[in-house]
Amino acid sequence: MKDMQPPHLDQSRVRQSFRRGLESYHGSASVQADIAGQLAAMLQQQGAPRRFASVLEFGCGTGHLTRQLLQRFQADSLILNDLVPEAAQVLQALDGTAPAQARFAGGPIEILPLPQELDLIASASTVQWIPDLAGLAARLAAHLKPGGWLALSGFGRGQFRELAALGSAAAAPSYLDADEWPAVLPHGMEILQITQRPVVLEFSSAMHLLKHLRQTGVNGHAQQNWSRRRLREFEEAYRARFGRNGILPLTYDPVLLVARKAA
User: What are residue 74's phi and psi, to 5 degrees?
Assistant: First the structure.
């Protein structure tokens, strides 16, 4: 299959946002950490083998999913990818648990050179940033060996619904609900399990909520400059519409799936 060219997306802004939050991401991204654990467990529960010959993880970030996979599975070779080059440091942070054949490859997954016959392709909390998700799914499937596994998580259309309602969220290009995924995956890929369960975080103030977004880089397209007046107006509107008992909720809408390529 000819490598696809990524449709227009301000990747430099997304990269900058995640680079800025890289140091704080691991400790602040509690929802993403839970998603990584759930996705690895789902893969295990669906009967994935204890050992994979070759594994690719894209959007590895600070290694939430990497660690969860290596706790449950063995891999002869491992390729880690991320849009942010500094994410390569995750290999040094794995404390000797990475396979001997492990390497980092930076850049957009849409055009990253991939080996053939991969046994597992996995990614947590990344696919929402891919504009042509069906095109990427076809590319990934083409690089899986027959019987190979695909474990992905993204976010549904309820992601950051409070921010969206207030016009303060810059949505990622591919928020998809669970029932939309069967049409995205190419022929020959069977979904073994898919789940969608919203998670609501609570914050005492708009400042704390915005700090969370900044520390995790998850709202990378949104405006970053907040005057005191704008912040006050934003908090007042947020509390009036969504506040309860002095708390400001923020909804995450994770969608997790495990699929397998026909043998």
Answer: -110, 150
